[in-house]
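Data availability (excerpt). The following record was deposited with the supplementary files.
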Amino acid sequence: MSNQSNYVAGVDIGGTNLRVGVVQGLQLVYEKRTHADFATLCKTHAPAIAWQKIIEITSHALKEAILAYPQITAVGIGFPGFIDPANGLVAQSPNLPGLRDVDLAQDLSSAIGLPVIVENDALAAAYGEFRLNKNETESLIYLGLGTGVGGGLIHAGKPFSGQHGVAMEVGHIIIDPIEKNPQARLCGCGNYGCMEQYASASGVVVSYESASGKQASADAIANFAHAGDKHALQAYRLAGASLAQALAHILKVVDVPQVVIGGGMSQAWPLMQAAFEERLEADLIPVLRHKVSIKISDAGDQAGIIGAALLAEMSLA
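Predicted structure:
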């Protein structure tokens, strides 16, 4: 931001967590995290009730930030769903089922009294990574590993959302077609065999339970894997290979010099890395091998907050 006195709020809404931050320049000067299991909320309540609760919880968290930083001029939201660029509506959110054509920007703006913009959460994180790693590259792909798998593209320094707001919905690339595997997993988007059903935190949970018969969180499964549990190791290897399988196809279409991998599950990257690299090497066309930089984000999960805030200021400039 050119004006260092500007304060903008950034919000990263996930399936299980809500993160609210205040950004000045490229610095995160305030951050609060809330466990807000919006995915379960949407699965257990009628859409109208779930949406009302999402607005209440998010606006409450934002009001706390505004109380701490009354200089905030705008709010940017990174939301896990398909954002229609024509009207800003959340058209659908596969990981928050039941939500269709909801006006997050207007509903939140009415609740907090500030201008709000909404962007896909992975695209917001991609822009955050781009700005935090300034001068490193003008184009990059971001892959966010969380409850699902999101993707964002920065091309020539600008975020690219596509004509219909669904560019880089990489988690829904089908890698395990039901025609070849009747046991392919059903995705929230309605298709079977989507990459995020294997490469996300929720995918790891399903893989582990299928192999071991036991239920555990992705974090717990990572701990089991570090202790040598074969089923846990297998679940993370499948996640790494599935991510690489999809990425190889993406890179054949979108030729960028760098891929940044972030999101909460990227903390378990050592468990995925070998299978990822082996599959990527096998599936990439030879001309691209060893030419694309794969970087694990060093911004933690702050890139989404920062990127959402920067996009808000940019849109309101």
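Summary of structural features: Residues 186 and 274 are 27 Å apart (CA to CA).
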